[in-house]
Amino acid sequence: NVSGVIGRLMIDPFTLLLTSTNARDYQAIEDHMAKGMNVSEAINHVIKEREIIP
């Protein structure tokens, strides 16, 4: 019996941005990619800009 069990999904900032469907997140990544960054570089740049601490 698993009734009453509560779980919480905790993911790192990189994965959160990579899988985000939020328009603000998507646009921030797209803006950096338009400047010549690849996806990984763009996500890391957004993390630094937003001062997200992993």
What do you see in this structure?
The chain has a domain at 13-49. Helix content is 54%, strand content 0%. It contains 3 helices and no strands. The model has no long low-confidence stretch (mean pLDDT 93). This is Conjugative transfer TraC domain protein.
Descriptive labels:
single chain, 54 residues, mainly alpha, elongated, Conjugative transfer TraC domain protein, 3 helices
SSE layout:
Elements: H1 13-18, H2 23-34, H3 39-49
Helix pairs in contact: 2-3
Q: Short description, anyone?
A:
By secondary structure, the protein is an all-alpha fold. The chain contains 3 helices and no strands.
Query: How large a portion of the residues is in β-strands, by DSSP E?
Result: under 5%
Radius of gyration: 15 Å
In helices, the fraction of residues equals 40-55%
Biggest sheet features:
none
Mean pLDDT: 93
Q: What's the shape? A: elongated
